[in-house]
Amino acid sequence: MLFVIRCLDKKDHLPVRQENRPAHVEYLKSFGEKLVGAGAILDEDESMCGSVVILDLGDKSEAEAFAAGDPYAKAGLFESATIDHWNKVLP
After folding, report:
1. Nearest 5°: CA angle at 71, between 81 and 30?
2. Alpha helices, DSSP H only, in the chain?
3. Which of 30, 46, 10 has the alpha carbon at shortest distance from 38?
4. Each residue's pLDDT tens digit, 22-80
């Protein structure tokens, strides 16, 4: 099952994002082929202000465990996070 995890950063938390980015990237890489895609959400000034991660996991509880284990989440970066089951249609 595909899941989209969308997280928005707390205001003025870019330094927290930058400090924890290497650990976050390594965490993403540890999911290997389960990781479908990942990237930062950008604001009007092209500054990173959130994240989108798409994972192929067994169920929503696995997606929740992924989100809880993310170094960004552990550092308190996110103002909000959503996890949605996603039905890929194209390509």
Report:
1. 105
2. 14-29, 60-69, 71-74
3. 30
4. 999 999 999 999 999 999 999 999 999 999 999 999 999 999 999 999 999 999 999 99
Residue 77's pLDDT is 98
The C-alpha angle with vertex 24 and arms to 49 and 68, in degrees rounded to 5, equals 90
Nearest 5°: the CA angle 77, 83, 32 is 80
Give the integer Cα–Cα distance in Å for 89 and 83.
18
Domains of the chain in start order, with CATH, are 2-86 (3.30.70.1060)
Tokens 């976050």 — which residue? 24
- What is the CB neighbour count within 10 angstroms for residue 61? 9
